[in-house]
Write a structure and sequence with these properties.
This protein has a domain of 286 residues: Peptidase S8/S53 domain (Rossmann fold, 3-Layer(aba) Sandwich). Helix content is 23%, strand content 20%. 55% of the residues are buried. It starts with a helix and ends in a 6-residue tail after the last strand. Strands 6, 7, 8, 9, 11, 13, 14 and 17 form an eight-stranded mixed beta sheet that branches. Strands 1, 2, 4, 5, 18 and 19 form a six-stranded antiparallel beta sheet that branches. The chain has a three-stranded antiparallel beta sheet with strand order 3-10-12.
Length: 420
């Protein structure tokens, strides 16, 4: 009898396990169109213990060797700090998302958005296609009263990494990055033209080709909101970011202390991240280092002549910074490949890089600027960030904010466009 019962017990246990797996699978969100599985654009959810109730997810998952991931972070649970109002991370109106809009960013950084940038082109480099990029951008700009920017008018253009129309396949995670980038360029420089260059994939080779294409097509400023932990592989692509007469910005990363490429390249302006909140006095805003902001010493690339800090023998990250903390993030309009929304609250140094790129476009100096040197000669036109840290490095300026230059915030955040 015992021998007969064992198969029955085994079958019962197998059935229970299968039922549990089926229930778990049915509860998992379906992958959006154009993705390579749900993980390609959803990623794991993270909770920020420093801001109780805030949950966010990375738009892009970790990337294999030789590839970069985008740095956009999307809030997926209510956050009560920062933003013009409070509410869920996914919302039917930007006021409900709790994210900052164009007027907030212009106020915080005193940017001449109403008068500068006309005729300038900011390129956004990203991987894969965002099929609804132009339509989503139109909704963002219309809601906030920004002038339209369409392909028909010549303001918006989308090309592949060869400058043509053979666009790569869509991918929902990178599409969210694209929406964030073009919205931030629009918020800061609404009179700028936008060139979206879509790399065939997230490989460093394809992204490097897309950067070179953006420069060849005449973009004065090129924004890069992606990266990979610095490794010897990255050095093969450093030359692709060397474009005199063009300014390149690169997000410093969202994993705290430690350098990421291409931000660690000596040819770019590396952009760190801050936590931006309203205050009642002085400037009307307060900033501290966002603990996710990347920083550190490059092991590969030489220290440019305009960097004089003594803690790194080679290149030091970052150069400047802007808002990046998801808890005090920005409003973004996005519809493709994900549920909810369409208004979302976003953070990451993916926010900061296009903000600074657009500030360069407002200034109009890209043709004469030597790589990332200009802010070092005009630090008085930046808001010095003196509080916060992004990790452990012995308490030095490389991971801890202090007066003047420090790794996580660089020289500081925009205070007008005079530093660019």
């Amino acid at each position: 009898m015992r021998l007969r019962r064992r198969p029955a017990v085994a079958i019962a246990l197998t059935t229970i396990v299968l039922l549990a797996l089926a229930a778990r699978a049915s509860a998992r969100p379906a992958a959006g169109p154009g993705t390579r599985g749900a993980a390609a654009h959803r990623g794991p959810a993270h909770r920020d213990a420093a801001h109780r109730g805030l949950a966010y997810r990375d738009a892009c998952p970790a990337a294999p060797r030789g590839y970069a991931r985008c740095f956009a972070r999307l809030v997926v649970a209510p956050a009560r700090s920062g933003g013009t109002s409070s509410g869920p991370g996914l919302a039917s109106a930007p006021s409900a998302s709790g994210g900052y809009g164009p007027a907030d960013l212009r106020s915080a950084y005193r940017l001449p958005s109403a008068t500068g940038g006309a005729g300038r082109t900011v390129a956004v480099v990203a991987a894969y296609d965002h099929p609804a990029a132009e339509a989503d951008l139109a909704r963002y700009r219309a809601w906030f009263g920004l002038p339209s920017c369409t392909a028909d008018s010549g303001c918006f253009r989308k090309v592949d990494q060869r400058g043509g129309s053979a666009l790569p396949p869509p991918q929902a995670g990178w599409a969210q990055e694209i929406s964030l980038d073009v919205d931030m360029v629009s918020a800061v420089c609404p009179r700028c033209r936008i060139l979206l260059v879509e790399a065939d994939s997230g490989s460093l080779a394809d992204l490097a080709a897309a950067v070179s294409r953006a420069a060849a097509m005449g973009a004065e400023v090129i924004s890069n909101s992606y990266g990979t932990p610095e490794s010897p592989d990255a050095s093969r692509f450093d030359a692709a970011y060397d474009h005199p007469g063009h300014v390149l910005t690169a997000a410093a990363g969202d994993s705290g202390y430690g350098p990421y490429f291409p931000a660690s390249s000596q040819y770019v302006t590396a952009v760190g991240g801050t936590r931006l909140t309203r205050t009642s006095g002085g400037r009307g805003w307060s900033e501290s280092v966002w603990r996710g902001s990347g920083s550190g010493c490059s092991k590969l690339f030489p220290k440019p002549s305009w960097q004089s800090d003594h803690g790194c023998a080679k290149r030091t990250v970052a150069d400047v910074s802007a808002v990046a903390d998801p808890a005090t993030g920005v409003a973004v309009y996005h519809t493709y490949g994900v549920r909810g929304g369409p208004w979302r609250k976003a953070g990451g140094t993916s926010v900061a890089a296009p903000i600074v790129a657009a500030a360069y476009a407002l200034a109009g100096n890209a043709a004469s600027v030597r790589y990332g040197s200009f802010p070092y000669a005009h630090a008085g036109s930046l808001n010095d960030v003196t509080a916060g840290a992004n990790g452990s490095c012995g308490g030095s300026y490389l991971c801890t904010a202090e007066p003047g230059y420090d790794g996580p915030s660089g020289l500081g955040t925009p205070n007008g466009s005079g530093a660019f």
